[in-house]
Amino acid sequence: MFRLIIQQFSVAKIWAGYGGLSLLVGVALWSCSAPGQNEMPAERPPNILWITSEDNSPLVGAYGDTFATTPNIDRLATEGVRYTNAFAAAPVCAPSRNALITGMYPNSLGTEHMRSTYPVPDFVKFYPAYLQEAGYYCTNNVKKDYNTVDQPEVWDESSSDATYQNRAPGQPFFAVFNFTTSHESSIHSFIPNDSLKHDPTKVPIPPYHPRTPEMEHDWAQYYDRVQQMDAQVGEVLRELEESGLADSTIVFYYSDHGGVLGRSKRFIYESGLHIPMVIRFPEAYRHLAPGEPGSTTDRLVNFVDFAPTLLSLAGISIPDYMQGHPFLGKQAADPPKYTYNFRGRMDERFDMVRSVRDKQYRYVRNYMPHKIYAQYIEYLWRAPSMRSWEEAYLAGELNEVQSAFFEEKPAEELYDVEADPDNIHNLASEPAYQEVMTELREANQQWLLSIRDVGFLPEPMMLDIASDSSTTLYEFAHSDAYPLEEIMRVAEMASMRDPKYLQDLINQLGSEQPVVRYWAATGCRILAEQAGAAKEKLQTLLDDDEVSVQVAAAEALYHLGEKQSAVNTLREALSDDNMMARVQALNVLETMDADALPTLDAVKALLPADNEDREYDTRAARHLSNKLSDMAQQGS
């Protein structure tokens, strides 16, 4: 893997980008100016400060949320430019942070799945490396979570004590401060109602949530956490001011994705993807701003755009491999018509979703519509609000909108985000919106082809490829071994849940490509009992060379009444050396209720002796083990 060693600052490069100042002039300015009041921002590249919060949607006064208490971010918005169409690449931290650090879509790199840490090609440098080469002092305080093999040398400091104050006199800095105060875990520890600053009985709740006491409480507590985070933002801004650096520093504030209650974080809706983002430009760099202080811009911005934008602001050439569009600086690109998002495996639960957003509509493409939205995720279910939502569903107390989260997905979704910001009215089948559907469907397909989306590989295959040091998933996706057009054609058919494609799917069960066989078998599962004609060919795939194909075929056969052979195949997969094959099998067994009881001993065998769930297979196994043990006890 690429390892960059900085032996000295490349002062000439950075100063050449700002007025052609010579190396001698640059060194003279650096050596005679101390940090603070004596810096001359108009004659040097900007300092850049990123303030990042975790897991919060725009629950901010500046975004019109009158229940929020965020005076510091609100004030920053009056001093800067507020972005109304800024989006995380994915609705969860690690894949989104991968997009930030690389300037590439994780589903092109093979880094889309939560905490998969698959390697990327050597040419992909984390963006601070380019800043260091140009003379910047780069600090990170403190979270990384980049979802691939780390490149720790790109930070001059990376710790809970990291600060730009330790740079050389006059040296430009890039500093990141990550606040975890508003992280999802902030609602896992209970604060009594009478200790909350925000009244649970008055908290606004989206229409897809039931107004249970637990839901009210978690929403109110989360608003409290956002208020605490806002205070931390204020502290960083005050320190910058007191250091005499505010006049030479461009300040970004943004969240790493939306959140945090159920159907926000991890889910590919506005609630999971839309983020608050404000950028403040000091007077010396006001010419770089897209508007006056206190203004807004509706330009579509995605996390893949951040790295190239940062390099553009610093006067550094943007590497060709970066897929984002710089939205500031001399290299700023024209505003894009669309922005793109993805959802892969979330912790221990598989899924594959892609999305396209323009300024009015969000198109969602569910490639695994047979998987319900609310697959059990251990970390998500730690929230009392999530447990109360499920209990209300099981008790039959929810309306149609609130119940939809616990049911299977349609293949396609379309939302008018201006009229329907909560994304609850699916327009995909409405005749009046078919032109929009066609446009955004084609935009999604073109995007996937242009980036060579590697996410169509089932993750057990991804793990095998990533474990081979001779190639990376990115390189595999650009090889002849990955016929993406053919794979996409079958995956699109498979996910439509339309019997007219059955014969084609049956034909593809015999493909030489294991990925195609996997999607053909998945299509038969999605058709369920309508796929009866595929039974004979599916049975031959129980002995396929690829375990992911075996599991997909077993799941399809289970829904065609072949329960015994399906259970036997899934049980065998639980002992496979490939951890993701075990997770895939556990995901299927989770949906089979009492029919999965014959696998209970094999499921329990996956549990560690120390009772710690360190891996996703043990998380999935623990929940399934508890569920099956309860069933066995009730049946005895």
TrEMBL record:
Q: Name one GO molecular function term.
A: arylsulfatase activity
Q: Where is the Sulfatase N-terminal domain?
A: 46-316
Q: Which UniProt keywords apply?
A: Calcium, Hydrolase, Metal-binding
UniProt-listed Gene3D superfamilies: Alkaline Phosphatase, subunit A, Leucine-rich Repeat Variant
Top-rank taxon of the source lineage equals: Bacteria
What InterPro entries is this protein classified in? Alkaline_phosphatase_core_sf (IPR017850), ARM-like (IPR011989), ARM-type_fold (IPR016024), Sulfatase (IPR050738), Sulfatase_CS (IPR024607), Sulfatase_N (IPR000917)
PANTHER family given for it?
A: ARYLSULFATASE FAMILY MEMBER, ENDO-4-O-SULFATASE
What family does the entry list? Belongs to the sulfatase family.
**What protein name does the entry list?**
Sulfatase-like hydrolase/transferase
